[in-house]
Each structure stands twice: as C-alpha cells, then as structure tokens.
Amino acid sequence: MFNPRSILLVLATLAVAAPMWADEIEIAEPAMAIMPVPPVPQPVPPAKKDKTPLPAPAAVVPMKAGEIRLHLMDGSVITGAVQPNVLDVTTPFGALKVPVDSIRAITPGLDSHPELKKKITDMINDLGAEGFAERESATAGLLKIGPAVRAELDKAVKNSDGEKQARLQRIIEEFDELTADDEETAADLIGADTIVTTNFTIVGKINTAKFDITSAYGPLSIKLSDVKRAERDVPQAEETKKTVTVSGNVVQTRTFEASGVKVNKGDQVFITASGSITMTPWGGNQSSTPDGGMNFGSYQPGNIPGGALIARVGPNGNIFKAGSKHTFIADKTGVLHFGIAMPGDYSSYQFPGEYNVKVRVVRK
C-alpha cells in the first residue's frame, strides 16, 4: 500500500542534494564565431614604362600666297586668301606698304576698336565709382579682358588715387602673376595697330578698313574693326630663351650683370621683367618696379627713370631702358648685360629685392 510519509521523505532528500548536484553541472559556453582571415595583399608590380618615343611635333605648314587667318571679335575664325594683298600703314616715320606674305601677325589697336576702347575707359573710370557693385563689376570686366589691357592700366594708375588706384594696382598684380611663367603672352592692347613681319615689328595705323576674303565658305567681306587678331603660319626661326635674376644691388654705377645670352646683329630680342627693389636712399620703404619712377630722379643719358631695368649689348654697348617690356633688333653682336638705373652714385647703399627677367631671342 502506498505510504505518503515515504514520498515526503524522498522529496526532502532531493531538496537537500540539489545544490550539490548544481556544482557538478557543466554549463556549456556559447561557441565563438570563427571569422575568416583576410588574404594578405600581394604587392602589385610597377607598370612597365612605355619606351615608345613620343611623336615629333608636326612641322608648321606655310600658308599659300596671300592667305591669312582672321580671329574675329565674336570668336569665329576665318582663313582664306585676302585682298588687298598689300596693307597701307601710316607710321610716325612715314607711310609703308606691307605685303601680306611678309606678315606673321596683326593686332588691331584700340583706335581700330572704338567700342572696345570706350568700354575699357568706362570700366577703368568705374573702379572709382560710388557704388560697390559698380566697382566690383568693373574689376571683373577688366580681369576678363586679361593681361592685354595692361598698358591702359599702367597709364591710368599714374593719374589715379584712393580705391581706384588700389584696384588698378591689384589687377596689375594679378596680371603679373598670370604672365610670370608664360613666355608667350597676348600682345598689349595699345592705341595703334601692331604688325609683326618676318623681319621687324611695325606700330602705326592700318589704313585698309576692309578685307575681302576668299574662304571655304565663299567670298566674305570683313571690317578691320571686326578683327581681334590675324596671323599667318610661317616656319619659325630658331629661338633662345633664358630667365635671369638681376639683384637690386646691380646699379649701373657699380656694375652690369652679364646674362649669358649672346645676341647676333639682326636678332630680334624680347625682354619682359617683373619684381621690385627697395629704393633705400629715398626712405619710407619706397620701392621701384622694372619701369622705374621719375620720383627717383633720372639717369643720363636717355633720361631713364631711377630704379628702371636697363640693358646693353656687350660691355661697351649703348645703354637703353628695358623696363617691364621691351623689344629691339640687335645692332651689334655681343652678350646681353643688365643693370639698374640710378641718378647718382649710391654705391654705399643697399637695394634689397630683385628683378626677374625673361629673355627671348629670335635668330635672324
């Protein structure tokens, strides 16, 4: 017969023994996930250099007789045979007749572009306008035209003051930075027309007001005022280029610095210069650019402004002003020398700074 007291005794025994069994129970730890080991990246062998020589630049194919390329003010370009094939040009030294076949480039001046001339004049004047928006618009407009307008800004800055002068100087500085490393800069926009021939450069007035062009699109009539520039493809003469640093202490009363560039009689020489020097004798940390300034006196002969970059061909050649930009035909053979014009003997002074001079020689 079933005894209830026996059941109670068994239950009591189990209750006492349960904690001891718990110590002997092993609770399994959760299994750790095994992450895959990423593969070790293998070094990529360097690509083999292509030793195939670069193709030589295509030779300039001369244009046919009478042909010229016209870049128009609206951005279009027209190439064809032009009539008349001889340009009548008036210069301060008399009238010239220039055959088209001897021309390398033409840059009509501001006098041939009256609308552009007025636009530039208005923008220069607006640099001193009362309204901020007008001044900003004028600044942006001149910067858009680019370094070609530099000559007009140089003239304006001398007769300006206040914010107008400050803005002109900032624009000029930006143009200097743009052209510092550029050997081939756009021709300056000046009043007169510029014609570059195979032998020399002419500055004057082109009296030919209209050109008749026979092009691939048929006959066209183009006004000179519509032409931004013109050019002819002709074989380029041999050139020599070099950059020279002229210290502020190379004043002509002490010495000239040899550039190492030899020019031959008849060579065409292009000089551009930037930088500044401190004109110590005048105090106030006044400085000069390669163009110099008459406020620093003048160097004789030649009435060259003090602080200007000057040059000569050979150790005994005639001294001339090179300034920030100068082009000339060498009248003798010799090494090009540079110096800085001073109105008197300032050998005891130091002139901190330097001019960076770029020389390009087109061989005859």
Features:
5-stranded antiparallel sheet; 3 domains; Jelly Rolls; alpha+beta; 364 residues
CATH class of the largest domain: Mainly Beta
Indicate how many domains the architecture comprises: 3
What is the element string, with H for helices and E for strands? HEEEEEHHHHEEEEEEEEEEEEEEEE
Residue-averaged pLDDT: 81
Side by side, the strands of the main sheet go 4-3-7-6-5-10-1-2-8-9
N-C termini distance = 141 Å
Q: Describe the main β-sheet briefly.
A: 10 strands, antiparallel
By secondary-structure content and strand pairing, the structural class works out as alpha+beta
Question: What is the level-2 CATH architecture name of the largest domain?
Answer: Sandwich
Per DSSP, the total helix count is 5
Please provide the count of β strands: 21
CATH topology of the largest domain: Jelly Rolls
Instruction: Say which CATH homologous superfamily of the largest domain is assigned.
Output: Galactose-binding lectin
- Share of helix among residues? 10-25%
Strand content: 25-35%
